Amino acid sequence: MELKDYSRDLNVLDQVRIRPYKKEILKKELKFKYFATLDYPTRIFNYNKVISDNRILKEESRSFFGEKVNSLWFIEKHTGKGAFAGAYHRHLLLEDVPLTSRSVQSYLLRSDPEALFAVQMCGEISDESKIRLLEYFFSSSKQTANSHRGVRVLKIQSNFDRVLAYCTKQNERFHPAYEVLDPTSSDIDASYLLQYKQDGTEWKTRPLELSARPRRNLRYAIV
Question: How far apart are the C-alpha atoms of 152 and 135, rounded to whole Å?
């Protein structure tokens, strides 16, 4: 996972690009704490499969943690000349995770008994333990690379705007913004992205001709 491109101050185009996302995040009062990257074990070129996999993984998350974990899902293509060039991977922004489900406590009992004791005593564990928990959950799913090399989680520090800019950097490059953000699994309203497109330092109305796919995806969006 490389965030080094956004260790610098954001330029004006970055700031304009993330503006509608920040507005929706504020409206929903979401507080994202973790950033994750999920790779596939093989090359996946089918966008609709990624959408379907995200929906399954979202439901698996609800089952594992005992309740919904609010999240944003971004679909991105590998670039460069490597073996996975042109194939898809995903970035996620996640709120804090609950720790009281039977599945979570069973994992902690096996892998981190000190963290389980902390949960039982004060209801909280360290960020490092939560990151290990999240990496375990994601790498256990058939919808990811099923290894720690393909699942990476970081705590978002004070650089949320930079992380959001990183997640949206491929807007309009391979897909329009309303397909880079997966509206099916993301917990914000994506309709603004469907209606408007960034044009330099402004967002302008999109042409009326849109593919059937984003409209179909938005019908199932969790907002």
Answer: 7
Whether 213 is in a domain gets the answer: yes
Q: Range of 45's domain? A: 4-98+128-219
Place of tokens 């699994």: 185
pLDDT digits (tens, 9 = 90+) for 114-136: 999 999 888 889 999 999 999 99
Spell out the residues 6+ positions from residue 196 whose beta carbon is closer than 8 angstroms to its own: 20, 203, 204, 205, 206
Number of domains in the chain: 1
pLDDT for the residue numbered 212? 52
pTM of this structure: 0.88
Determine the Cα–Cα distance for residues 148 and 140; give it in Å rounded to an integer: 10
CA–CA gap between residue 154 and residue 181 (Å, rounded): 20
Rg (CA), the chain: 18
